[in-house]
Amino acid sequence: MPQKKNPDAAELIRGKTGRVYGNLINLLTMMKALPLAYNHDMQEDKEPLFDTVATLETSLFLMSKIIETMQINKEKIEKSTKGDFSTATELADYLVKKGLSFREAHKLVGGMVIYCLENKKILEDLTLSELKSFHRNFNEKALEILKPQSAVEAKNSYGGTSLKRVKESIQKAKKILEEK
């Protein structure tokens, strides 16, 4: 279909992971339980090693071209975060911090998702009174937690998804690349 733009190169690169993992398992198996002297079976390490290097070189080159030329549609990304119940776990974690066991919170939020599906709603559209009908521990903070952007920003530990942590990771990666 001519109107479609499939990320073929990215999908093929993702597919190469199995090949590289296979080469790793090949090498690990070969290295297992070797005696201390030279071993002729070590001659078999070249093929998986060279194949992995060639695969990585090609994949990294192609991915760099994808990143250089890609265009990010922020509106489309934001729109795609709504209606998928991706903040349900955030809501369950909120209830755990309020004293519920995760098992109870999981069950309660699962019921809320069913309610939303039956009423053609999304979690983010629930009102505070609707939230309170499920549990008295909900307050205004719960409404904020249901926003996808808040869920992203909440992950503020090392390597997390918050804007601060992402910027740190980018700076670290740039520093590594400059050193090479």
Task: Report what the structure shows.
There is one protein chain. The chain is mainly α and 180 residues long. Among the domains are: 8-64; 88-146, Ribonucleotide Reductase Protein R1, domain 1, CATH 1.10.40. The chain has nine helices and no strands. It has helices at 8-31, 46-69, 74-80, 88-97, 102-118, 128-134, 140-145, 148-154, 163-179. Helix 1 packs antiparallel against helix 2 and helix 4 (88-97) packs across helix 5 (102-118). The longest helix is centred in the first third of the chain and has 24 residues, at 8-31. It is elongated. The mean pLDDT is 91.
Task: Sum this structure up briefly.
The chain has about 180 residues and is an all-alpha fold. Helices cover about 65% and strands about 0% of the residues.
